[in-house]
């Protein structure tokens, strides 16, 4: 069973540390996006890289019944943790991967010691007057329609907008290629599960300290979203990045590594105390 999960989720391990660090991709990406970040942690952690079913080489295990909502991707994380006997891990998640990590930690908090959330969003859709998510429903529906009618055109349009950094077009090209390597039907279903999810209530259920990394000029998770996550997530720390766009682990890996290391080395004890006070209250 463990070998099946390793194959299904394309699991790779590296590093020589005793504690585990898990890296979880965002929508439309595979584990290769972490290649500029993981070497900085390989001496201190056992690193786990994996792909969600449908985002890596395994398409045969994909079913709409399991992956029609984020719950199926949450179960992928929990399955990988079980297969590799994970506990007290540092979970690093990008975009929807950050929210998947939050949901997994809410179900099994003992598996996770800390969450690192890069560009998280609990709700992508605006809910006026109290919540700014960045998109109107019509915007999201039009994006899904474009995916269905012209998938390559959708990838070519969205990748540069997500990546930002127009002076470095190779970054957008990499993201576009990643989108185009995914089965369009699976990508559309994952997009719907991502962009129409509402996990705002799940923030307050967290029992795990978290770092929220908020990029500048991020059209997917604007500044208001990062502030909302921090305000509603117990024991969280918010750091605003100089990095622009939505993928700092690709565009600004040095800053991403520095902020994660600073958090892991200097802030944990204080944050644990804040979480305990919140839960007691």
TrEMBL record:
<comment type="similarity">
    <text>Belongs to the AB hydrolase superfamily.</text>
</comment>
<dbReference type="GO" id="GO:0016787">
    <property type="term" value="F:hydrolase activity"/>
</dbReference>
<dbReference type="InterPro" id="IPR000073">
    <property type="entry name" value="AB_hydrolase_1"/>
</dbReference>
<protein>
    <submittedName>
        <fullName>Alpha/beta fold hydrolase</fullName>
    </submittedName>
</protein>
<keyword id="KW-0378">Hydrolase</keyword>
<dbReference type="Pfam" id="PF12697">
    <property type="entry name" value="Abhydrolase_6"/>
</dbReference>
<dbReference type="InterPro" id="IPR029058">
    <property type="entry name" value="AB_hydrolase_fold"/>
</dbReference>
<feature type="domain" description="AB hydrolase-1">
    <location>
        <begin position="22"/>
        <end position="258"/>
    </location>
</feature>
């Amino acid at each position: 069973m463990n070998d099946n999960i390793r194959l299904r989720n394309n699991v790779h391990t590296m590093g020589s540390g005793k504690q585990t660090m898990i890296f979880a991709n965002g929508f439309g990406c595979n584990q290769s996006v972490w290649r500029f970040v993981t070497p900085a942690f390989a001496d201190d952690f056992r690193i786990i890289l994996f792909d969600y079913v449908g985002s890596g080489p395994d398409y045969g295990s994909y079913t709409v019944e399991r992956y029609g909502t984020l719950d199926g991707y949450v179960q992928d994380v929990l399955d990988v943790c079980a297969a590799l006997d994970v506990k007290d891990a540092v979970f690093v998640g990008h975009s929807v991967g950050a929210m998947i990590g939050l949901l997994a930690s809410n179900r099994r908090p003992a598996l996770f010691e800390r969450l690192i959330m890069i560009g998280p969003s609990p709700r992508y859709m605006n809910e006026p007057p109290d919540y700014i998510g960045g998109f109107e429903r019509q915007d999201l529906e039009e994006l899904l329609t474009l995916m269905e009618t012209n998938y390559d055109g959708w990838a070519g349009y969205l990748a540069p907008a997500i990546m930002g950094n127009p002076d470095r077009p190779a970054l957008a090209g990499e993201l576009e290629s990643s989108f185009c390597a995914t089965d369009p039907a699976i990508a559309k279903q994952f997009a719907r599960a991502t962009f129409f999810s509402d996990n705002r209530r799940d923030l307050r259920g967290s029992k795990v300290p978290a770092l929220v990394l908020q990029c500048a000029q991020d059209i997917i998770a604007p500044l208001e979203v990062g502030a909302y996550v921090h305000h509603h997530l117990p024991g969280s720390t918010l750091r605003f990045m100089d990095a622009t766009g939505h993928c700092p682990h690709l565009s600004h890996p040095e800053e991403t590594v520095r902020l994660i290391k600073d958090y892991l080395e200097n802030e944990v004890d204080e944050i644990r105390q804040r979480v305990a006070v919140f839960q007691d209250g």
